[in-house]
């Protein structure tokens, strides 16, 4: 089996940006790189949402049987 080493992060970023620019152009590459990420819920809020949707009896049946 062939082993491979991971490339340095700087090299990886440079190559990825070059590939994006080659395919998308500079304006669309910049637009892509600055797209806002999806809003992440804080973990307690996410857990509370999960609890509100939870159907207790089927959940307990699945976990404890």
Radius of gyration over all CA atoms, rounded: 22 Å
What count of helical segments does DSSP give? Answer: 4
> From N to C, what is the helix and strand string?
HHHH
Beta-strand content: under 5%
Number of strands: 0
The low-confidence runs, each spanning 5 or more residues with pLDDT under 50, are none
Shape, please?
elongated
User: In terms of structural class, how would the helical and strand content be classed?
Assistant: mainly alpha
Mean pLDDT: 89
For the report, how would you describe the main beta sheet?
Answer: none
Which bin fits the share of residues in helices?
Answer: 55-70%
Report, as a whole number of angstroms, the end-to-end distance.
43 Å
Name some characteristics of this structure:
mainly alpha, 4 helices, elongated
Q: What do you see in this structure?
A:
- The chain is 68% helix and 0% strand.
- It is mainly α.
- Helix 1 crosses helix 2 (26-33).
- The chain is elongated, with a radius of gyration of 22 Å.
- The mean pLDDT is 89.
Short description:
The protein has 65 residues and is an all-alpha fold. It contains 4 helices and no strands. The protein is elongated and about 55 Å long.
Topology summary:
Layout: H1 9-24, H2 26-33, H3 43-53, H4 56-64
